[in-house]
Write a structure and sequence with these properties.
Blueprint (H helix, E strand, L loop, with lengths): L4 E2 H4 L10 H10 L2 H8 L2 H7 L15 H14 L3 H10 L1 H7 L1 E2 L10 H13 L2 H12 L8 E10 L7 H23 L8 H13 L5 H28 L8 H21 L18 E3 L7 E12 L2 E8 L9 H12 L5 E3 L7 H10 L2 E2 L11 H29 L10 H26 L7
Parallel strand pairs: 3-7, 7-8
Antiparallel strand pairs: 1-2, 3-5, 4-5, 5-6
Helix pairs in contact: 2-7, 3-17, 4-5, 5-8, 5-17, 6-7, 8-17, 10-12, 10-13, 11-12, 12-13
């Protein structure tokens, strides 16, 4: 590994005296949007909250605890791949100032996998509740209208091909055949017979068809199910008989177990039975189909997040890779906002899915005015209530739903390329709060501190 110096240890040795170009870079950094994010995000406190250490035994880390958090924010802000992010970090002095490092241009950082290593390290330690409490406390003095709560749910899609039964079955068959072939070759045995080559040609011909009838799909699915069952048996028997001579990694057994579950689920699906917890990817077995009911996209694959928004700043109320009904979570949304900001909710905006009778009674009992369409007889002040409902609905439809689109389009949340469940949650967390940090720039710049009581 090549040595990178921290800015604090390097500054006294800079050779420029009369015309210090580094100081000019520093001034331009703090005047930029990236500098505004740097000021608005509590890197040091968040690093301590997550248990990241600056000093520990062993080789010295490239990045401090705050620098690791900053690198994750920079990843979301730039929407670059890990390789491109490190290339830009080597060349861009503003990025180095943001992460608290100074890289020698003659000895650039070439290990782009360090981004993934840091992402995995923070992903293991991330506690969304505690981290959001810290961020809320840091931003609270600059927020207005903290008594107004808006809530809605969205799906942050994972990066995977659109899953079909045939694709999934073929991926399982192809992986098992490759593993069986490698083990047999290592042991010097004869390859057991199967109809893999015949099914490979059939799948190839099926994939080339522009229009696939339901009959073609069903015939190929039946054949792949039979072949998958046979390959699982052959591989299991080979491992059992030759167990003293085979040493396979834990990742093999994990995927082998997932494929066994897929076979069971796809058999039920083929027979027309309902399947709960349907697996749609071998690599990401935690991903489930989320039925959203949209005209353009009926089903999405990724994490469903129920969010709350206060003065344009979004917080995660609930994140799950399993489908859930966000309407029943309204009381929890109110409690979550009040625990974050210590401010009683008096106005609430949510779509019609939240307007259940229970939620209406709950809000009425708490004295909360909502954007829900009125049921029953009109009150004496119905005109004023209608105006409030209209304003709340308009604000939610533009500001909250618009923020979802902004996060997905500009902050790496369009297609999440994480490879594990923990890093995918981390990816979503930093995407949402990097967007929040950008929204906080004008609030912290133009507005005076608000009373925290």
């Amino acid at each position: 590994m090549r040595k990178i110096q921290k800015i604090s240890s390097l500054q006294p040795t800079i050779a420029f005296t009369e015309y210090d170009i580094f100081q000019q870079y520093t001034q331009s950094f703090y005047g930029s949007e990236l500098g505004g994010i740097f000021k608005s995000f509590p890197f040091d406190q968040l690093g301590k909250e997550l248990g990241l250490r600056d000093h520990r035994r062993g080789r010295r880390s490239y990045f401090s605890a705050a620098g690791k958090i900053a690198l994750m924010v920079l990843k979301s802000y730039t929407d670059l791949s890990d390789r491109d992010l490190i290339a830009q970090l080597n060349a861009n002095l503003h990025y180095q100032l943001f992460c608290g490092v100074r890289i020698n241009p003659l000895r650039p950082l070439d290990n782009f996998k360090i981004v993934s290593e840091i992402r995995c390290e923070i992903g293991r330690k991330l506690d969304i509740g505690k981290a959001q409490q810290l961020l809320a406390s840091h931003w609270k003095p600059y927020l207005g209208n903290t008594h107004v709560l808006m809530t809605d749910a969205t799906c942050y899609e994972s990066s995977l091909r659109f899953p079909t039964a045939v694709k999934l079955l073929w991926e399982c068959v192809d992986w098992l055949q490759g593993q069986l072939k490698g083990i047999i070759k290592t042991l010097g045995l004869r390859m057991p017979r199967s109809k893999y080559e015949k099914q490979r040609l059939r799948y190839k011909a099926y994939s080339r068809k522009r229009r696939r009838s339901s009959k073609d799909t069903r015939v190929l699915s039946r054949s792949l199910l039979h072949l998958l069952d046979k390959l699982i048996g052959q591989l299991r028997d080979t491992i059992r008989v030759n167990s003293p001579h085979i040493h396979l990694p834990a990742s093999f057994y994990k995927r082998f177990s997932v494929i066994g579950k897929i076979l069971h689920q796809q058999r039920l699906h083929f027979d027309g039975k309902e399947v709960k917890g349907l697996i749609v990817s071998i690599d990401k077995d935690y991903i489930r189909p989320i039925v959203r009911g949209k005209e353009s996209k009926r089903v999405e694959f990724g994490a469903k997040v129920n969010s709350i928004q206060v003065d344009g700043i979004n917080f995660i109320e609930h994140l799950s890779f399993e489908a859930f009904h966000e309407g029943i979570r309204l009381p929890r949304c109110i409690d979550h906002q009040q625990s974050l900001l210590r401010k009683r909710v008096t106005h609430l905006a949510a779509d019609a899915l939240y307007a259940t009778n229970y939620n209406r009674r709950y809000c009425h009992g708490k004295g909360i005015l909502t954007s829900f369409v009125r049921k029953g007889k009109a009150a004496k002040d119905e005109k004023q209530r209608k105006q409030i409902r209209s304003l709340l609905s308009k604000e939610r439809a533009t500001r909250l739903e618009g923020s979802f689109g902004t996060e997905k389009q500009h902050y790496s949340l369009g297609r999440i390329k994480a490879r594990t469940k923990k890093t995918e949650i981390l990816w979503i967390f930093f995407g949402i709060h990097t967007a929040n940090a950008v929204r906080m720039i004008p609030k912290m710049k133009d507005q005076p501190l608000r009373p925290t009581g």
